[in-house]
Amino acid sequence: xxxxxxxxxxxxxxxxxxxxxxxxxxxxxxxxxxxxxxxxxxxxxxxxxxxxxxxxxxxxxxxxxxxxxxxxxxxxxxxxxxxxxxxxxxxxxxxxxxxxxxxxxxxxxxxxxxxxxxxxxxxxxxxxxxxxxxxxxxxxxxxxxxxxxxxxxxxxxxxxxxxxxxxxxxxxxxxxxxxxxxxxxxxxxxxxxxxxxxxxxxxxxxxxxxxxxxxxxxxxxxxxxxxxxxxxxxxxxxxxxxxxxxxxxxxxxxxxxxxxxxxxxxxxxxxxxxxxxxxxxxxxxxxxxxxxxxxxxxxxxxxxxxxxxxxxxxxxxxxxxxxxxxxxxxxxxxxxxxxxxxxxxxxxxxxxxxxxxxxxxxxxxxxxxxxxxxxxxxxxxxxxxxxxxxxxxxxxxxxxxxxxxxxxxxxxxxxxxxxxxxxxxxxxxxxxxxxxx
Amino acid sequence: xxxxxxxxxxxxxxxxxxxxxxxxxxxxxxxxxxxxxxxxxxxxxxxxxxxxxxxxxxxxxxxxxxxxxxxxxxxxxxxxxxxxxxxxxxxxxxxxxxxxxxxxxxxxxxxxxxxxxxxxxxxxxxxxxxxxxxxxxxxxxxxxxxxxxxxxxxxxxxxxxxxxxxxxxxxxxxxxxxxxxxxxxxxxxxxxxxxxxxxxxxxxxxxxxxxxxxxxxxxxxxxxxx
Lengths: 437, 226
Prior knowledge:
By secondary structure, chain A is α+β, with helices and mostly antiparallel strands.
């Protein structure tokens, strides 16, 4: 037995090199009753990203749970202050990387309100925005289910969830050219119109998704292991949610039908028919049910979008704001259309100057401040934007729901088991890119 | 710029064009000076539910023997959004009433965001709160200022526990000290970080990038348009 203890400056130090566990435990004496502090993460497969959980444990019971965040801080807000309003989209889309269209939409709605052009955004642009956002809600909820399932050991849910998400990402790739970080929604409208064949493709995908979503319910709704891991786990009631500022599925799982798409509609959400899903269990299982049912509602909205897609412009009329060039596929990839280049270089000096000014300098936005909020898959995603009258934002702040929702970890996990921490965090569905920005 | 047009922040006049300073500019544009119009203080009626909120807040404040002008510096209504500029000494009392009065009931706080206006002397630091009333489906904004020399603002964590992390973030990035916060530590930056990165006097910290043989300056050192 080579276990010994010695008194060091910072307290008792245990050295351990093999031996019998019984002896070791009896050697520890009353010290064995002491709590252990465990660092879970930031590199841990079941913390949903680079989230560090600091857990104080009494055996298997969590007595204190704290979060450490900041490992993915990239200074998106600060960077936006040094780029034009149009370039800012490219930055904010990378915040909550599972819901890029929501970041872009919140940001662009803020810019548009500052510019006072909310009413001028063409219908087609708003319909496409809604369609993309709702498809994005599906892909985001699928990742929530997939990673949540993975973290609880349900590998089939993981493989199936990512498989279906890929279908949605294929649509995104077809429309925007990228699977993530699209930078597709622009202040004033969209970067470009939908490519031909989009409507058919989206119809196929939502038909397939509607069928596949039933598989999730068949697989999980009554699954005894899933129920045992999620039912009654991560409980947080309405009072707790409101006090902690929790929104999204977690809030709706307490029975409050709070949904910004209904209460403060934007992008024309008031004209779509869909239900706000609520549950009353306020636990991880009900949050799962809400996500599955919200995906079905999203499918309904996407279908309505497809039905009301009318041909038309996707960018505001105002040439002082609208990006001058249409994108086109050239020999070296997607870029400014050659027709446009030919026109500005060869025939129109003024168009060339205009293009140059708008692209390099950007458009000036009247001074003031606004707060535009959208209902992202995780809750209220707000953009507080201040303009000083220049061509770059004076301040951009994203109120990210993941950041706020993570504050509930202590309330949800303390007093429970370590294994339930995983289920509770998974049911919050934090995305660390959004938390840290 | 008149003395009371400091909202949303005192914006310095924009000078010149093309980012050229001092030498090299023979166009004359370098001497351009343009004043920036900022939304002025609003007078009654504010429009929408803003009047009702202001009335009820006034009544609630008077119930606590607080004079309106003593607590509210100014009200700005701009682009359909209402901002109450609250004096920091009265922030807690105002927020308490906004949250607890049944007719106001702003039970939900969407967080606090800092803004730094280095040119607005005596009120360089702003903390901006978005309050939402789910009950009445309203949203208002509170703005509180503090001078750089004394960057203290009372903490609202006791009223809105959600502000715990938001205040830590604002402290981290702007150096605003929220008095009464249970544990005001950095949240995004490392604990031993020096400085508050989102202040305007803090550089972006980019490095030059080489692209096709040319060197591109970091974004905060590039020539910028006025």
